[in-house]
Amino acid sequence: MPPFLYIFLGALAVVSALGVIIQRNPIHSLLALIATLMTVAILFIAEDAVVVGFLQIIVYAGAIMVLFLFVIWLLNLQVETGPTGHLALKLFGSLAAALLVTELIFILAPHHLQVKFTHEPVGYGSLASLAGKLFTDYLVAFEVTSVLLLAAVVGSIALARRLPGTDDPRAARKIAS
Amino acid sequence: MPGNPQPKFSDAALAEYRQLLGRYPTRQAALLPTLWIAQREFGWLSDETLDYVAHLMELPRAHVRAVVSFYTMFHRKPVGRYLLDVCTNLSCRLRGADKIVGCIRRRLKIEIGETTPDGKFTLGSAECMRHAGPRRCSSSIRTRTSKTSPKKASSNSSTSLPPVTIELIAGAIKAILMIVTALGLSLFLLYFERKGSALIQDRIGSNRATLTGFGKRMGMPNLGIINTTIADPVKMFTKEDFIPAGADKFLHTLAPFLSLFPVMITFVVIPFGDTISIAGHRIGLEAANLNAGALYLLATIGLGVYGSALAGWSSNNRWALLGGIRATAQMISYELAMGLAIVSVIMTFGTLNLQEIVRGQGGVWFGFLPRWAIFTQPLAFILLLVAGAAESKRIPFDLPESESELIQGYFIEYSGGKQAVFMLTDFAEQALVAMLLTTFFLGGWQIPWLMRDGFHLPGGAFLALPALAISLMGVVAFLVKVVALCMFLGMVRWTLPRFRYDQLMRLGWKGLVPLGLFNVLVTAFVVVATGRVQ
Q1: Could A123 and B118 be called an inter-chain contact, meaning their C-beta atoms sit closer than 8 Å?
Q2: pTM, to two decimals
Q3: Which string of DSSP letters, residue by residue, matches B380-432?
Q4: Cβ neighbours around B88 below 10 Å, total
Q5: Which domains does chain B have, with CATH numbers?
Q6: Higher-confidence residue: B373 or B521?
Q7: Fewer Cβ within 10 Å of end Cβ, chain A: N or C?
Q8: Is B177 near chain A, with CB under 8 Å?
C-alpha cells in the first residue's frame, strides 16, 4: 500500500472514530462508527487481508450496526443537551482514560516499534488460506464458538418469549426457569 | 492460482488445444504451445499442472518435465503480474545491466527470482536473444526494459507503467460503460413501469406526455418511449426540493445518495463479456476483476439498508419512520437467504470470482444442455429470485412503501430530485438483481453451444466465427438475458398482491433461510461426493 493512502485512510479512521464520541446525536455517532469500520476494512483489504476486510463490512457495517440502529430507535435515545453523569463517574472516567493513554505510550515507545515486515506468501489472506486455518488448526475453537452463539440465540429467545395468555415476558421467564 | 491441486483447462482452452493438435504432425511437437496455454491458464506450471498436461497429451511425465526445465520462459514458481527479465550475460553487464538489476532490487526490494509481496513484479534473469554484438545487446536490454519498464520503476511511480496505464484507461472506460448501462436499464425500466404495467393491467398508461404540451394540442404524434423517459425525470428535477420542519437536514439530504451509492458500485464486479484482445492487450470485460467478487457483492448489498433506514428516520415523520424500520428489517432478513443462495453457487464452482463462475458455465452436458447453474442449482435460483425481489423492495415485497397504510413509507417526505434518486435506486436495484441472476445462474455472457471458435451445435454441426464477433455477441447475450429477467420481475410485480408483514417475515425466516441452509448442505455433500473438493 502506498504510504499516502495509508496516512489518508488512517487519518480518516481516526477522525471518524473521534466523531463517534464527539457527536451529540446518537444516530450521527452511529454513522461515524460505520465510517470507522469501513475505513479499517479498506485498510485490511489494502494489506491483502481481503476476506477479513469484506467480512468486516458484511458483518459489522452491514448487520451489527443495523442492530445498533434498531436499539437506538427502540430506546428512543435523544440528542444529548448537556453534560451528564455523577462526579464519581467523571473521576473514574478520567482515571481510566489516563491509564489507557499511559499504556499506549509504553506500547508505542520507539524501542518497541522495531517491527519487522515479512513477505507474506502468495495467497495470504485469501478465503482458502483462512478457511484452511479455521477448519484445521482452529477447528475446535471455531465449532465451540458456533455452539456458544447458538446457545445465546436460544437463550435470548427463551427470555423474550411471551407465552400465550400472558403479556409479561417475565412470566414466561419464570415458567422457563 | 497458486498451488491449484487439480488443474483443469477451461473449455475455451481445451478447444484451443484441440485446434493446436491438428496443426502439428506429432503430439510431441504440440507440447510447447500446449504448455504455453497451461501457463496462460494457471499463471505458472506447478507439478500438478505438468502431470495434467502429460495426462492430457498422453506423453510421459518425464518428457514434459524435461521440456519445461530446458526453456527459461516457463515459470516453475508463481510469478507476479509483470515479469522483469534482465539479461545478465557478460556483454550486457558491460553495457550496464547490473545497474538496472540493482535499481530494480532497490525500488521493489526483491532479489532475482523473487516476487514483490503485492504480486505485481517478478525479477528474473535471462540470456539475451541477440548475441550479435555489444550494440545489439544493449538495444535488446532496452526493448526489454521498455516493455517491462524497470526504468520507470526507478522514476518513482508504478502507475506510469504503460501496461498499467492502458489498464487504467480500459478500466475507466469499462466502469463508465457499466454505469451508463445501469442508468440506461433504469430508463428502460421507467418506461416499462409506465407502459408495460398498463399493458398487463389492461390500461392505456401514461399517454399525455409529449415533448411540449403545446405540441400535443397541435396534433404532434405521441413519441412513446421518449415522452415518458424524458418527461418523468424533467418533472422531478424541476420540482421544489422540500425538507420538512424538524428534520435532520444533513441526513435527509444524504439518505437518497446513501441508498443509490452501494447499488451503483456493485455493478463494477459484474462480468458483461469474455476477455477480448485489442491491439495485443487482453482486456477482461468487467469493470473490476476481483478474486473475492462474491464477497464484495454481499458487502455492498448489505450497505444498501442505510439509505432507506436513515431516510425514514431523518424525515421527522412517523409513517416515514415506520417505513424505514420495515425496510431495514426486511432487507436484513432477506440478505441471509440471498447470501445462502450465492454461497451454494460459490461452492458449486469453487471460486468467488464472478468471471470464473461465468466461465464455469460454458460448455454443455449430454451434448445439448448448456452448463448453466440454473440446472444444477434450481433451488438457489428461486431463492435468489425471491430474495432479490424482496431486497429491491418491489411488489409483492413493497411493504416499506405500502401506500395504503404508510402513504409512501420512508420517502414520504421526499420531493423533486431526491425522490428521483430513490426511484432510480429502485430501478437500478431491479437491474442489479437481474444481472446477479444472469451471472450466477443463466451463464452470464455465455451463449449456448458457442465456444471460442464458433457454434458447436448439438447435432455436430459447426459454424466458425471470428473471435471479436463472438466476444460482442457475448455482451449482447448478457444484455438480452438481463432485460428479459427485468421484464419477468416486472410481470411478477404487476400480477401479485402485496404480502402482509407477518407473511413476509415468515416467508423469509421460516421459508427461505431453512431452504437455503438445506441447499448449502446438499451442495456440500454433492461437491464432496463427486470429489471436486480442493
Answers
A1: no
A2: 0.70
A3: HHHHHHHHHHHHTT-TTS-TTT-HHHHTTGGGTT--HHHHHHHHHHHHHHHHH
A4: 18
A5: 11-70 (1.10.10), 82-158 (no CATH), 239-512 (no CATH)
A6: B521
A7: C
A8: no
